[in-house]
Specification:
Blueprint (H helix, E strand, L loop, with lengths): L3 H15 L4 H9 L5 H8 L6 E3 L4 E5 L5 E6 L2 E8 L2 E8 L14 H12 L4 E7 L8 H5 L8 H12 L6 E10 L1 H7 L3 E5 L3 E3 L3 H5 L7 H5 L1 H7 L4 E3 L2 H13 L39 H8 L6 E3 L7 E8 L2 E8 L10 H16 L4 E7 L6 H5 L2 H14 L4 E10 H5 L9 E5 L3 E3 L7 H4 L1 H6 L3 H15 L2 H6 L5 E3 L4 H12 L15
Parallel strand pairs: 5-6, 6-7, 7-8, 7-9, 8-10, 13-14, 14-15, 15-16, 15-17, 16-18
Antiparallel strand pairs: 1-4, 2-3, 4-5, 11-12, 12-13
Helix pairs in contact: 4-6, 13-15
Amino acid sequence: MAWTPELEELKKRTALSKRMGGPERVKRQHDGGRYTVRERVEKIADPHSFREIGALAGIAAYDERGELKDFTASNCVFGRAKVDGRPVMIVGDDFTVRGGSADASIREKPMMAEEMAREFRMPIIRIIEGSGGGGSVKTIETKGRANLPGQVGETRAYHLMTDNLGRVPVVGLGLGSVAGLGAARLASTHYSVMTKTSAMFVAGPPVVARLGTEVGKQDLGGWEIQTRSGAIDHAVDTEDEAFACARKFLSYLPSSAHELPPVAPSTDAPDRPMESLMTAVPRNRRQVYKIRPIIETVVDEGSFFEMGQMFGRSIVTGFARLDGKPVALLASDPFHYGGAWTAEACQKIIRFVDLAETFRLPVVYLCDCPGFMIGKQAEESATIRHGVRAMAALNQTTMPWCTIILRNCYGVAGAAHQPAGRLSLRYAWLSASWGSLPLEGGIEAAYRAEIEAAADPKAKLAEIEDRLNKLRSPFRTAETFWVEDIIDPRETRKLLCDFAEIAQRALEPVQRTQPMRP
């Protein structure tokens, strides 16, 4: 006897689950310029690759005969899929069902998504809108009790959410108003993107208003706030752009820390002409220059993928390819504080080099650092404390490292241009300059008596400057092998491609001698 009645029941329940919050709420989602969660999954995954798990989980209503009368699906949709042919986990919030709050959620669903990503070593993409399964004031009434944060199941969910950061690539997409647990899930990622109409906050405007501050969603947690604070890596105009960013980010990384990053075919010659680099750094040491054209010139064409552009802006971070091989790229940006390390830049460096270490990416650093930022604001933001933590992060890395000193390399922050205590490669451009501190501004103090005693103080100052500038020539440093190589800037791409090639020989995935446990 065929199982036709049961099959029909399965089809009926599946159809009801795909109804989500109903036509009116789906229309409201579309009218707000947002896709539904299922549309988002279809957009980001390879066609027909999504295999949903737990579609039948939700709240059912039955008639007096025990027959199904109505069904509301859980507001979490998750499953396996492929992105650019590679298996991933996708988990998304359905805002059409109670705005993604806890009283419409089944917490085991997002937990299982995290567990599957961990155990099967797959990247996870979190599509977040609403509270992401977090609480609601109405939860007290619907559950009949107040939730005590940190219950066993809840604690495990938090553990899985953060533990995966050391195991698999984690991407977060904020595609609406994201609050509470949703904000934590979005921030607990390696790469986060939000649309410019979205907002993220620990607590929304109505809650903040109880503190006496009336503020709108965008002023409280809009994209400009969150990207400048470093809570979110990138903001885009459309959801489709967010999906494209997620796919590109993942293309540089292995599926887990147990593998090596994927090497791609390259048609960009390592020795292509680099004439523009000869004039990239101006002779006038007070004149700034643009670092991104230099980056775009030395890496494979179109391969630079920047992250965190609005935060810690004296440092540029992102992925790139060199002859097809992925690298993590750090670069000083003299347009912001002359490239000096601020407290925010140091935080950005720590997170980025940790990411490179987790997923076995060699590091390239284009250095133009005059030192730590100085002044009252720098002291108030504890720049030196964040700075030494950044130095520790660099020194703790084991990844192959190559530094190109473009211009300045001064002071304690300058000393952190490469990891201490182990081999790294280092090249200096003809424009490079270094020392314990810059000569500018220091000569008058150090040679005050000699200058004041001179018949022509201005001529004496110029004489001392000329003498010291000759002594600080990088060629003098090269004589003692304190710098290994001074190069023609036009050699840079070829040397970096060589570095990326030999670095592959030193890369090994993470090895664990015991099973991974939560």
